[in-house]
Amino acid sequence: MNIKFFLLCFFTIYIINNNKITPKISIIMPIFNIKQEILKESIKSLIDQSLKEIEIILVNDASTDNSSIVLENFAENDSRIIIIHKIKNEMTGSARNSGINFSNGDFLGFLDYDDISNKESFSVAYKEAIKGNFTIVNFDYFNFNETKDYKKRRCNRKIQNYKTILLDENEFNVIKLIYVVPWNKIYKSSFFHKHNFKFFNTRGGEDALLLFTYFPYLEDKIKKIKSKQFFVCRRQRKESITYNELSKEIKIKIVFENLKKITFKKWEKDGIINLNKAKKIMAVLYGIAKIYNFNSYFKYNYLQFLKNNRKIFNKKFILKDNVRLFFWIEMIELFKDVNYNKFENIIYKNNKCKI
What we know:
This protein is of the alpha/beta class.
């Protein structure tokens, strides 16, 4: 009798597990101390997605308010919701990593806890990703404040008559056109897991640092979707982290330090620093200059940063012992007038770059 009961239980569990549907997208939302009405609106925008085969992972980053109660109430009524309660607040990057570790979806998506996703967003992005077998699909967003009638005019309209753009093989152009944040993209989960990509656990710059790290690993083009109906509506709040960042100088220092300590070391370990990836790595350094090129502090420190770290790349970017394919001195041009052809020539022609 006991053996029969055991076998019955075993086969019941086996059937349940094998009938479990893999979510098409796992959407991760980090949460820390936010007004209940704002949090509810953000979560509801995910629950109401027209794409129903999703997994909603809510990561409570040790909130000290009533956020946990709000999350539990939602989870009681929607089996797609997974809640992760963290004991210690470890910032947005770590919270997103926790969500990635628990995710089961074919794709990863992200939404911040005070923003709103159009109900068509993930459906449109997913269809485009599957149709073209894209690793990343990028889409548009809209900034709003509470004084604007954003819902009626911008955020709740059905996304239709949109156009898609293939971001070409000019890496300098691609990294300029895709915003560094994760919440206007979906990613193949296998891409993250294969290369063990993680968000940086820094206060400021964690989004950009992730993009800079994974960009050289991309093997295909990126799809970008444009529409008059926006995919994500970004709430502008004076209380948000975006409005209360550290000084720009400290943020730049954080980016530089983590590039050297984490990104460069990962590239070396994974064998990314090679001739085939030279152009993508150059595009990353170009992208950094375009994002943070706003004052003399950055210009001076960035050039010093490049010079101090040039040996990491020079030993890899040498062809026939006399042709340097990197462009340390030419980076100065980024602070004047960017000449893409010049960078192309550095890669593909026998131009000697004296360091």
